[in-house]
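Researcher: Here's the sequence for the chain we discussed earlier.
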Amino acid sequence: MSKNPQDGNGRDNALEKELAGLKNEFDRLRLERARTEEGLSNIERQLQELEDQARQEYGTSDPEELESLLAEKRAENEKLVSNYGQHIDEVCKKLDQIEQGLAGEE
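Model: Thanks. This is the structure I predict for it:
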């Protein structure tokens, strides 16, 4: 039984084509890896900058401590808004009294 050399060439061509496809896929994956590593590096740099900023502004970069500080600030703001609302109500009442007094003089 003799083998047809053309059959071997067809298989060789198919293997070369498959190898070329695998090389292209490898190159694509290598590029994607480089982009991912660059993106990760940028994110790590940004995180470090934000942690530094938090430490400068709030004395900590610990998320739990920052959450606690935020809760305290919110409570303070709620109290200030409530006090301001009460103050405005008092001013309005006094204005009403003054207007009533002026209306009674007429």
